[in-house]
Fold each of these.
Amino acid sequence: MQGVLFNTLTVIIGSTVGWLLKKGLPKRVTDTIMIGLGMCTVYIGVSGMLGGKNPLVLILSIAFGAAIGSLLRIDDGIHKLGDNVEKKFRKNGKSDVSLAEGAVNGCLIFCVGAMTIVGSLNAGFGDNTMLYTKSILDLVSSMVLASTLGIGVLLSSVFVLVFQGGLALLAEYISPIMTETLIAELTCTGSLMVALIGLNLMKITKIKVADFLPALLFVPLFVYLTGLLGKVM
C-alpha cells in the first residue's frame, strides 16, 4: 500500500500547488494553458485507445454504458452535487470551472490506464515500483490540471486512494481474472473518455463524460462473451 499512499500524496501536493498558481495567473494565461492541456489529454486518450485489441468490445461497452449513464443522469447528478458543495463554501459567485468537473476529470486522468491497474496489483504483492513512477507523472499532471480546473482536482485524490487501494488489497483475488486482454480493453475504453475530456477542455465540445462511466463495467462482460464467441467460431 506504500505506493498507493505515495501516489495519493503526490496528487494532493500537485493539485494544491496548481490551485495556488491558478489564483495568481491571469485568465488569458489559464485559458491558453487549458487549450494546451486539452491537446495533451486528447493525445493521451488516443494513445491509450490504440492499445485495444477488439473494437467490438469498445463499441458494445460504450453503447450500453452510455445508455445506462444517460438514463441515470450520472453527469448531471455529479455536477449538481458539486454545485451544492460550492454554494456552501463560495461566497463570491460561481467559478469558471465547476468543482465536479475538476474532480471527474482528475479521477479519469489519474486512474485510467494499464499503469494504474498493473501498478496497483503489483503493489498488492509488495512491488511499488510502477506506482512510484506513476506518482511522479501524476504530480506534474495534477499541478497543471489544477492550475486550470481549480480545487476540484484535489478531490480526485480520494478516488485515487480508494480505487488503487482497492485493487492493491484485492490483488490476490482478482489478479487471475485481470488478463492482458481485459486490461487492454479497460484501458482502451477509459482512454476514449480521457480523449473526450480533452475535447471539452479545449471547449470544442460539451460532452457529459461521466455518463459514459458505466461502460467500464460492461468491458469484462463483453471480453468474456467475445472470447466465448471466438472459441465457438
Amino acid sequence: MTTVLVVDDEPQLLRALRINLRARGYDVQAAATGTDALKLAAAHPPDIVVLDLGLPDMDGTEVVAGLRGWTDVPILVLSGRTDSGDKVDALDAGADDYVTKPFGMDELLARMRAMVRRSTGKEEQPIVSFGPNVVDLAARRVTRDDQDVRLTPTEWHLLEVLVRNPGKLMSQKQLLLEVWGPGYETARGNLRLYMGQLRRKLEVDPARPEHLINEPGMGYRFEP
C-alpha cells in the first residue's frame, strides 16, 4: 500500500483528500503544520508527499528543503497562489511537481500515480525512445528515423538532464545550473535558444512540441 503524507491547514480539504485517497487504496497520514509534517515524515517515511505551500508556521518551501535534507521522496506541491514565483521557489527547493488550487481530484491522482511510478522505477534506462527519436544515454548518441542527429555538447547536456527526469517539471534555474553551472541562473535566453534548437532537431512539429514541453514562467518537462 502506498503511503501518502498530506500537509494542509484547511480542515475541509484535508478531510476530503483523506477520504478520497483512502477510498483509492492509499494509506494516508495528515498534518496541518510544517513542523508536524517534518516530524511525521521522519517517524513514518511516506512514499509521496502532497504539500500545501501556505502553512501557518512556515512556508511550504521550507518543508520541501527540510525533507530534501534526507529523502528523495516525491513531493507534489499544492498552491492557491497565482504568482508562479512561489511555485518556482518550491521546485528549486526540490519539489517534483505542482497542482494549482482549485484542482480536480482526477488530475491530482494522475499526477500522484505518475510520480510514484517514477520513484519506484528508478533503475537507469540507457535507451529512451520518443516519437521518431532514440536517445542512447550510455553511448551519448541520438538517432531520428535511424539517422544520427548531431547535437552540440550543450544541446546534449540539456537533453540528457530532461530525459533522465521524465515527466518531472524542471525549473529554469535548475536547468541553467545543471547545464551551464553557477553564475548562469538568470540566463534564460540561453535556455530558450537551446530548447528551440533541440525542438527543431527532435520534434515532428517544433511549433507544437509533444515531448519537450514548456510551462510558461515555470520551466520545462520531458514527456516520453
Amino acid sequence: MTAKNPVLTALDADLSVRVLNQIPTPVMAVDKDFKIVFMNEAGCSLLGLPLGEITQYKCSELMNSLHCGTPECRMNQAMQSGARATARNEVNIDGRAVPIEYTAAPLKDEAGNIIGGVEYVIDITSRVRDEQKLREQSRTIMEISTPAISLWEGIVVLPVVGVVDSMRAQQMMNTMLAKIKETSSKIIILDIQGVAAVDTAVANHLIKITKATKLMGCRCLISGISPAVAETLVQLGIDLGDVATNATLKDSLGDAFELLHYEVRKTK
C-alpha cells in the first residue's frame, strides 16, 4: 500500500476542505518538494484546471511568478524559517500578468515538524491600478503647482506656492533644470512669495537649487522675500551665500535685465 502524503493527511478533514473552498481567493498547499497537494476551488478556477490535474505539478510550473525559483520565494522562506512571509508578486496565467499579494506559512504535522507550506493569494489588480492613478495624479498636481514660465528671452520664473519639502524641492529642481535646457535661459527667478514659512530645511533646499542651476550656466535670483521671512532667516542664522534676493518679482526682473544688459524703454 502506498503511504499517504503527510501534507494531505494534515488537510483531509472534510470540514477543513469545505471551509477552504468557501474562501474566494486561491489557497494552495505544497509538500517540501514544492509539489502541489491541495488547491481550493478559487485556485482551480484561476488556473482553469481540475484539482486532479493541478496536483501533478510543482507550484512554479503553474504559477510562473517573478519569485518562482528565486530567493524571493516566500513559500521557500516560510518552510526554511518556520515563520509566515508576505510579499507582492506577479503571476503569469495563460500569458496574462496578474499582480498579487501572497502570504506563505509553514505547514506542520502533529509533532510540529514542517512538512510543507500553505499559501493564499490575493489578486491586487484593482489596487495596483488605483495606486498608479494616484501616482499619476500626484505627479500632475506637482507639475501644475510648480510651473516654470518663460518670462522674457533668457529669463525664466518659477513661482512657488505652498510647502517646500524634500519631494517638492526635487520636483522644483527637475522642472528648473529641464526648462533651462529647453530655453537656454541665463537667468531663473525663484519667486517664493507664496511660501508660508521658511525654515532651515527650506533654506537648504533653495541653496541646493541655486547651486544646481549655476552648474547649468544659469544665474538664480530669489524674489518674494517678505519681512517675516527675512527676520526668520536672520534669527535662524541662515546664510544664503551669494544668492541674490529681492522683496518683489519686479525687483528681481529688473536685476535680471541688468545682468543680461537689457534696456527697457517707453515708446512714444
